[in-house]
């Protein structure tokens, strides 16, 4: 679980950058702070069952926690996991997330 200071509870993104993957969509915007904040949103359209929506969030969150220290600071991220994420192996999801951060040039060298 991410510490409270790294969670993005209420948000209104102005002019976000959007990225898409097989397993998730991401919106990101600079926050002007020395920390990153994350939100994970799964709609009922993806799955009506709360337990499945929560498991999607947990899977993506665990991947973020693994590379958390390698992410450049000063951004807000909103992850929207897709239904394909539920059936996918966690390692595949991790590789996609890692690929996103490399492509967006958000990993520390």
Description:
- This protein is an alpha+beta fold and 109 residues long.
- The protein has one domain: Ribosomal Protein S5, domain 2 (2-Layer Sandwich), CATH 3.30.230.10.
- 33% of the residues lie in helices and 20% in strands.
- It has three helices and four strands.
- The chain has helices spanning 50-67, 84-87, 90-103; strands spanning 17-20, 24-30, 37-40, 75-81.
- A four-stranded mixed β-sheet has the order 1-2-4-3, covered by helices on one side.
Considering the chains and any ligands shown, give keywords for the structure.
Ribosomal Protein S5, domain 2, four-stranded mixed β-sheet, globular, 4 strands, single chain, alpha+beta, 109 residues, 3 helices
**String of helices and strands:** EEEHEHH
Give the strand line-up of the largest sheet: 1-2-4-3
Number of domains: 1
Strand runs, count: 4
CATH topology (fold) name: Ribosomal Protein S5, domain 2
Architecture (CATH level 2) name: 2-Layer Sandwich
Structural class: alpha+beta
Please identify the top-level CATH class. Alpha Beta
Specify Rg, calculated over alpha carbons.
Answer: 13 Å
Mean of residue pLDDT values: 92
Q: Compute the separation of the termini in Å.
A: 25 Å
Shape: globular
* Count of individual helical segments: 3
Residue share in β-strands: 15-25%
């Amino acid at each position: 679980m991410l510490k409270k200071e790294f969670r993005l509870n209420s948000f209104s993104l102005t002019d976000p950058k959007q990225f898409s993957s097989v397993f998730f969509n991401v919106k990101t915007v600079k926050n002007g702070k020395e920390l990153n904040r994350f939100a994970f949103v799964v709609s009922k359209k993806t799955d009506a069952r709360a337990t499945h929506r929560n498991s999607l969030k947990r899977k993506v969150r665990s991947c973020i926690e693994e590379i958390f220290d390698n992410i450049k600071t000063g951004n807000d991220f909103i992850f929207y996991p897709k239904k394909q994420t539920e059936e996918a192996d966690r390692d595949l999801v991790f590789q996609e997330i890692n690929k996103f951060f490399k492509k967006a040039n958000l990993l520390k060298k």
